[in-house]
Amino acid sequence: MSEVFVNKVAESGILTLDLEQYLPKEEIAVFDIKGYLFMELILKEKDFRAALQSLDWSVYEGKNVAVTCSADAIIPVWAYMLITVYLQPVAKEVFFGTEEEMKKALLVRNIAALSEAEFADKRVVVKGCGDVEIGPFAYLEATKKLRPVAKSIMYGEPCSTVPIFKKKPGAAV
């Protein structure tokens, strides 16, 4: 007598949200102002403007660019504005901060762009383990996005979850 194995997880109707899929896939380049400072401390306007004018901006073509200063220097706000004037026509995205901060911001933006209709009245498990470490901020953002629309939210894997939220029957959102 042969037994029929039933995949109860597949039949449960649970949607899995894998946040790794929403990590930015495009290359991130870093524009560090430090290299354009006199003695890596002082921004001299005339020299800074000349350096920016002579720079080959095509190296940033189609890339996400994080603009930062790794030196402990006081950078006038206009310097960031001037860099943006050169970067915006060529870069895909211009961001103030470190490469890691830009990755976070792009991930948050990608989560915010999730289609609410896809998760409406569904049981959703937000995948908890993966090949890439994803910070708690992303799970917080996913929960904010899902809570108004999902029937329930769980954390982990479909076969072993931690319940996070369950919509009360008849409750208005």
Notes on the structure:
By secondary structure, the chain is α/β, with parallel strands linked by helices. The chain has two domains: 8-22 and 108-166, no CATH class; 28-91, no CATH class. It has helices at 8-11, 45-54, 77-87, 99-112, 116-119, 136-146; strands at 14-17, 28-32, 64-68, 93-96, 123-127, 152-157, 160-166. The strands form two sheets. Strands 1-5-6-7 form a four-stranded mixed sheet. A three-stranded parallel sheet has the order 2-3-4, sandwiched between helices. A hairpin with a 2-residue loop joins strand 6 (152-157) and strand 7. The longest helix has 14 residues, at 99-112.
Radius of gyration: 23 Å
Number of strands: 7
Structural class: alpha/beta
What is the chain-wise order of helices and strands?
HEEHEHEHHEHEE
Average residue-wise pLDDT: 90
Largest sheet: 4 strands, mixed
Q: Helix count, per DSSP?
A: 6
Q: What overall geometry do the principal axes of the alpha carbons give?
A: elongated
> Ends: how far apart?
50 Å
Report helical residue fraction: 25-40%
Question: Uncertain runs with pLDDT below 50, 5 residues or more?
Answer: 5-11
- The tally of structural domains comes to 2
Strand content: 15-25%
- The largest beta-sheet arranges its strands as 1-5-6-7
Question: What's this model, at a glance?
Answer:
By secondary structure, this protein is α/β, with parallel strands linked by helices.
List keywords for this structure.
173 residues; alpha/beta; 2 domains; four-stranded mixed sheet; 6 helices; 31% helix
Write the layout of secondary structure elements.
Elements: H1 8-11, E1 14-17, E2 28-32, H2 45-54, E3 64-68, H3 77-87, E4 93-96, H4 99-112, H5 116-119, E5 123-127, H6 136-146, E6 152-157, E7 160-166
Parallel strand pairs: 1-5, 2-3, 3-4, 5-6
Antiparallel strand pairs: 6-7
Helix pairs in contact: 2-3, 4-6
